[in-house]
Amino acid sequence: QVQLVESGGGLVQAGGSLRLSCAVSGRTFSNYDMGWFRQAPGKEREFVAGISWGTRTTYYADSVKERFTISRDNAKNSVYLQMNGLKPEDTAVYYCAAQYISSTYYYAQAGKYDYWGQGTQVTVSS
């Protein structure tokens, strides 16, 4: 079993920044590709960013490219999401997720992830 705990959410004005953290425990962190998803009220959960375990290749949704940066620290069993230039449309609950490594990393497919955190609220005011 893997436990994921997000932190770092909050209220910020448009144009501001936040850094989300996700602490992973329970299994070998390096066995998992990691992703961030978000869900706004009345909307489906959507992919935000992903990072592979070995090469640390990163993937981003078009809506957050050039503004968000995903990173991971395998020594600290943690993954991060640095969010700059925040917009009101970024308001959502943000979830960290872990996908056990395989030949293909389905970074944008929520159904392929094996474990999820409880989420952290990000609210961007205009």
What does this structure look like?
There is one protein chain. The protein is mainly beta. The protein is built from no helices and eleven strands. Strands 2, 4, 5, 6, 9, 10 and 11 form a seven-stranded mixed beta sheet that branches. The protein is globular and about 40 Å long.
Concise structural overview:
The chain has 126 residues and is mainly beta. The chain is built from no helices and 11 strands.
Estimated structural class: mainly beta
Cα-to-Cα separation, first versus last residue: 40 Å
Relative helix content: under 10%
Beta-strand share of residues: over 45%
Instruction: Write the element-wise H/E pattern from the N-terminal end onward.
Output: EEEEEEEEEEE
Helix run count: 0
In one word, what is the shape? globular
- Average pLDDT works out at 95
Topology, number of strands: 11
Major beta-sheet overview: 7 strands, mixed
Radius of gyration: 14 Å
Q: Report the uncertain regions.
A: none
